[in-house]
Structures are given as C-alpha cells and as structure tokens.
C-alpha cells in the first residue's frame, strides 16, 4: 500500500521559509553545500535540456546513440534542484581524452566514475551546479535504471508527490552535504525499482 503524502509542496516550502527565519541551527545547515537548493518545477528545464544536449552531442562523434533528459528536472510538476541531468548513451567509450577536452571547452569537469563504465561530468556557473552528464555504453544497467525511475514518476502522481516530499524533508534536515542527501534518497529509489520490475527486459 502506498503511503499518503502528508502535505503538498507549497506547505513544505512555507515551513522551510518559516524555519529559516526562526532557527539559527537551520540557518547553519543551509550554508552547507548541496550544489543548489530545491525549487518549484520550472517548464524552462525542458528547453534547457534541449539546448545543452545540442551543445554536448559533438563530443561523442559516431559513438553517440541518444541523449536523454533524466533526473527530477525531467519530471513535470516535480520540485527539484535546478540542475539539468543528461544521460548520454554511447555504443562504446572511445577517444576518452578527446571527449574530456571537448567537455572542458564547454565548462564541464570530469568527475569520478560513478561505477565501471559510468562516466560523469558536471558543470558549475559562478559556483552553482547547472548541469550533470552521465555517459554510459549501450546495455549498461544505469541506462535502464535512470529511464525506468523517470518514467515511473512521470506516470504516477502519487509516487511523484511522495518523492518530492522526501527530497524536501532531506534538504531541510541536511547536516552533511550532498552525499548525505543522495544516500537519503537511495532507499526510496531502490524500493520503487525493485517493486516495479522492468517489463521491457
């Protein structure tokens, strides 16, 4: 049985603002780096994805299979950190130094691989995270994982509201930065994907 969402996003944003005015402890937590703050859904995120996918596509040459908009900014109605998540599917990893150089020319930094074969790039503007790019070869487990999670939340408003409430709660309670925030989301994502197997496999 799905757990009901106790309050909507508007209520929670109001509570965060009130807490920020009255609690020094909360104010101190807000200074920690979470890359950016959660904001209400912005329809412009879709256009930002389209624009940026066109900019980065040249990095991958003839290995490029597809570029997908993933993450919370790809889900209509979901509050999110305004960081555009892009998943690049390639036929294989080739010319990695050249890819890294091309991405650097667009303002991206190559991060640590998130798993074997899962390359990661991030782009910050004036110290604020704006884009994240995941690059995986065809058949990598993270491709189906990211797309399945995105599509499940697109299709189910109740699940979307539950996830939004969790994210806002984790942000409000955060004391250790982005790693703590991501770890707090992981059980929800894992449980959802486990409970709804991929019927396309």
Structural description of this entry:
- The structure is a single chain.
- With 201 residues, the protein is of the alpha+beta class.
- It is built from seven helices and five strands, in the order H-H-H-E-E-H-E-E-E-H-H-H.
- Strands 1-2-5-4-3 form a five-stranded mixed sheet.
- Helix 1 packs across helix 2, helix 1 (9-22) packs parallel to helix 6 and helix 5 (141-155) packs across helix 6 (157-173).
- It starts with 8 loop residues before the first helix and ends in a 6-residue tail after the last helix.
- Mean pLDDT is 86; it is low at 1-9 and 15-32.
Largest sheet: 5 strands, mixed
Q: How are helices and strands ordered from N to C?
A: HHHEEHEEEHHH
User: Structural class of the secondary elements?
Assistant: alpha+beta
Helix content: 40-55%
Q: In angstroms, what is the radius of gyration?
A: 18 Å
Task: List the main descriptive attributes of the protein structure presented here.
7 helices; alpha+beta; disordered N terminus; 201 residues
Give the SSE layout.
Layout: H1 9-22, H2 24-30, H3 44-56, E1 64-70, E2 84-90, H4 96-105, E3 108-110, E4 119-125, E5 128-137, H5 141-155, H6 157-173, H7 178-195
Helix pairs in contact: 1-2, 1-6, 5-6, 6-7
